[in-house]
Design goal:
Strand content: 25-35%
Helix content: 25-40%
Shape: globular
Radius of gyration: 11 Å
């Protein structure tokens, strides 16, 4: 999976996480740094989005800028 671009590895990891609604997330990658943005319903979902990326090859830093907004 290391042969895949980082963006694809991030997308795959987020899609495989059952606790994260991918449609509400955006992300940017740059030189091993991934920035998560968007809105989630709970702090648990915010943490799970970050955890989904923790072991992805090529990520050195995760900036979790997700907002929690109860609907």
């Amino acid at each position: 999976m290391i042969d895949m671009p980082l963006e694809d590895r991030v997308l795959t990891a987020l899609e495989r996480n059952p606790y994260v609604a991918r449609r509400s997330l955006r992300f940017e990658t740059s030189a091993g740094r991934v920035t998560l943005r968007g809105v989630v319903n709970t702090y648990f979902q915010k943490q799970m989005a970050q955890e989904a990326l923790r072991h992805v090859d090529g990520i050195d830093e995760i900036a979790n800028e997700l907002e929690v907004c109860w609907r």
